[in-house]
Amino acid sequence: MRLLVALLAVGALAGCSRDAKEGASTSTAVQTVTVTEPSSTETTAAAPAPNRAGSLSDAVARVLPSVVNVRTESFGGGRGEGSGIVLDRGGIILTNNHVVEGTTRVTVVFNDDVHKRPMAGTVIGTAPEKDLAVIRVRATDLVPLPLARSSALRLGDQVFAVGFPLGLGATVTSGIISGLHRTIDGENGKLTGLLQTDAAINPGNSGGPLVDRSGRLLGINTAGVRLAEAENVSFAIAIDEALPVIARIRKAPPESEAWLGIAYSSVDSESAAVQLGLDGTVRGAAVTVVYPGGPAEKADLAVGDVVIAADDVPVDSAADLSKVIASRDPGDELDLEVIDTSGPRLVTVSVAKRTPGALP
Q1: Pick from 222, 210, 224, 219: nearest CA to 241
Q2: Full domain range(s) for residue 85
């Protein structure tokens, strides 16, 4: 396979390729994640330092089976593509939150010459503030990517990025670590502790790995910078920073956590509102998934409903709704003002405990 290097102007957090129809794909959070310290088995303390030697082509061959193409669908038929990283044999895949936010369907395409057919993916949790998401597929024989220790990186260390940019198929770009501990503005706040590299990261690369010369994971590619602002500047989430977040997402949700049984996405622009068939001035949180048996299903909330207020508190985005839900206790009743193409209505939802197994 020939290595393809594509240099295009991309916006901050433009690593996910989406078509013009996907106006509603803005800010979904399947669950709010609180970062906790990982257990000793979930850290890279025992992981080796990045390799500064070795054959690049050999490393690429080892990495490719662990990199997947994440394809998404959203309201109105919008489609997008990103990349993902196999974390373990049991079907756990890591990607960026902005790859899957606002989507109604996720499909994973493999590159391991074993799994020939795409698999349906389920988003089991996200950390929007860290731009991380974890997907599960039904598989038990995937090829996980080994870890390196990103904290041991030095300026000038050679790295390469692997992903599925621009619909071109598996693509490799190489460069060096050109900055450490960077901070940039993301869609859900500032992203901190990032690795900076001059390896090209283009639309579709988001969620793919940044690896060392032995093919070990150093970071999760997340953003490129506009060519008008800077040249050959891209960013990745350091794996040492990501591991505690990933560990939290993978754990069963606390029994005391308030839950409505929905996933939702921000409607924070005229195009997002129009795509849902609503007036362009509508702002709120659009329901993208209603989980069977959950409180929202019992209250007759439906995919496409847009929550514009909760207990008389205006809701202008998914983050606003998350804050209101987090302030309630299981057993509370929450009055939601919602709107769809039929008009506005009031829905009362009983806040429930999210217990293990509540999410698919």
Answers
A1: 219
A2: 17-250
328 shares a domain with 201: no
Section 313-323 average pLDDT = 88
Catalytically active residues, by annotation: 98, 131, 206
User: Do you know the residue count of the chain?
Assistant: 360
Instruction: Report residue 122: phi and psi, to 5°.
Output: -115, 125
- The structural domain count of the chain equals 2
In angstroms, the CA 231 to CA 198 distance is 8
Q: Is residue 9 part of a domain?
A: no
Tokens describing residue 324: 């209101």
* Cβ atoms of 317 and 188 closer than 8 Å: no
Q: How many CA atoms lie within 13 A of 100 on its CB side?
A: 33
Q: What pLDDT score does 229 carry?
A: 62
- Give the pair of three-digit tokens for residue 125: 């949790």
Query: Is there a contact between 179 and 193 (Cβ–Cβ < 8 Å)?
Result: no
Instruction: Show the 3-state SS of 55-72.
Output: CHHHHHHHHHHHEEEEEE
Number of Cβ within 10 Å of residue 296's Cβ equals 24
Task: Kindly state whether residues 117 and 223 are assigned to the same domain.
Answer: yes
User: Tokens 């070990």 label which residue?
Assistant: 216
Whether residue 314 sits in one domain with residue 188 = no
Q: Answer with the one of 228, 250, 272 that is the final residue of a domain.
A: 250
In CATH, what number is assigned to the domain containing residue 31? 2.40.10.120
CA dihedral over 190, 253, 322, 296, signed as positive or negative: positive
Mean pLDDT of 192-221: 93
Q: What are 139-149's pLDDT values in tens digits?
A: 999 999 999 99
